[in-house]
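[Q] Does anyone have a clean structure-token version of this?
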Amino acid sequence: MRRQQWTSVTIEFVIVVLGVFIGLQANEWGASQAAQRRGQDYAQRLIHDLDKDLRVRRELAAYYDAVDDGAERTNTLLGRPAHDPTALVVNAYRATEYLYTAPTRSTWDEVVSSGDIGLLPRAAVDDLSDYFAFDNARSVLDVLRASSYRRRVRSILSHEVQQAIREGCSDVRGQTERIVGFRQNCTLSLTSHEIADAAEALQRDPGVRSDLRYQFSEITTARANLRGDIAHLERALAALRAASHR
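[A] Here you go.
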């Protein structure tokens, strides 16, 4: 009788232990599945955000390529008095331009604040950490907005000339109304005399050339930083997409 009791107790104990073990395993499996679903959700949301940012950063890079081209043309035309006054005025102004679009960081901030970074592919985390650590586009904006070249050129050109440039040679906007570049064909509602006077004023001020030399340095840095952003985004997207197809 006593042996049967011990056998019964042993069986009950084993059943309890197995029940606890199975319960713990089920909880762990459930938690693992929930974490996997969260990771997949984060990945899809990040892919959506990063696709947008990549498109915008490429547009910004193309925009600053055009700004750099304006600076190059200005540098050439300043050495050719009266060669093409309209081109000089337009390009000198264009070389003062800047553009900014903020990164889309809401999903990334949520991942970081929730402590769920470990749910993302390591390769993606490395590039995203670098990309979101510093807003390169904002830095470009701050530097070029405060540049001595911008202040000088916009102080030399009259209000009427600048208004004519904005109306006839302004930014080009895409389907979403976001600025994507400059007009290729410009029309200035100015007399030839007004344009010639503006070009002469630019050529007459020696500070335009010296400030333009430094502007080149700032534009080059801006373009390099944006290319770095693009590389980070491309690699992060590749890592996220590769992980989602496993």
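[Q] Thanks! Anything notable?
[A] The chain is about 75% helix and 5% strand.
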